[in-house]
Amino acid sequence: MAQEVELKLLINPTDVPRLQRHPLLQAHTRQKLPTQRLLSVYYDTPDLTLHKHKTAVRLRRVGKQWIQTVKTEGRISAGLHERSEWEYETAGNTLDFERLEDPELREFFANNTLRRALRPVFTTDFSRARRILQWPNGDVVEFALDRGAIQAEERTSTICEVELELKSGAPERVFALASALQKTIPLHPTNISKAERGYQLLAHHDAEK
């Protein structure tokens, strides 16, 4: 299990080029990582049992691999997300709950009725441009720029956001970095994850039926 600590920031697509050239990013970039296309399929039951239990399950295709992720709610403080996540490779695009190490989650997903009811409910499809930022004191933050779309049934929503994820060091570094970038680039903190946005699209679609 990993403890994810990150800050999400919305950005207007027209401001992306200026952000990518920002002197702060240039000064602290230790490594630029290859841009990835990330296609994720989120699963739930017809009555959205997982969402009601504040749990998200997705299969994400990265190259030729499929990675399964299970996330629980965690907490949000001043826009900083802290939550537990379990992530591992699966054999093809099939769900596998046998490798979960958390006893409560294992028991929850041991319900065969629940497993049989799980189905794709929405997808996210975006490109992720990443770089590793490092400071002299050893703080390390991953900067990710995500651009693409969320689709639930016939409804779509655009993705254009920055994620600052703490890899090592103090969480305050994430806030300080965001604050410095916001001085010249309009970046808007958001507490709404891509998964939650997918569920919102799904709710709008069901309301229109």
Description:
The chain has 209 residues and is α+β, with helices and mostly antiparallel strands. It has a single domain, classed as Hypothetical Protein Pfu-838710-001. It is built from 7 helices and 10 strands. Strands 1-6-4-3-2-7-8-9 form an 8-stranded antiparallel β-barrel. A hairpin with a 2-residue loop joins β3 and β4. The longest helix is centred in the last third of the chain and has 15 residues.
Supply database-style keywords:
single chain; 209 residues; alpha+beta; Hypothetical Protein Pfu-838710-001; eight-stranded antiparallel β-barrel; 10 strands; globular
The protein's oligomeric status is: single chain
Q: What is the H level of CATH, i.e. the homologous superfamily?
A: Hypothetical Protein Pfu-838710-001
Distance between termini?
A: 39 Å
Strands in their spatial order, largest beta sheet: 1-6-4-3-2-7-8-9
Q: Biggest sheet: strands, sense, closure?
A: 8 strands, antiparallel, barrel
Mean pLDDT: 90
- Beta strands, count: 10
What is the CATH-assigned architecture? Beta Barrel
Rg, rounded, reads: 18 Å
Structural class: alpha+beta
**Which percent range fits the helix content?**
25-40%
Count of individual helical segments: 7
| Strand percent estimate | over 45%
Helices and strands, in order, run as: EHHEHEEEEHHEEEHEH
Shape descriptor: globular
Using the coordinates shown, work out and report the CATH topology: Hypothetical Protein Pfu-838710-001
Highest-level CATH class: Mainly Beta
Number of domains: 1
**Spans with pLDDT under 50 lasting ≥5 residues?**
none
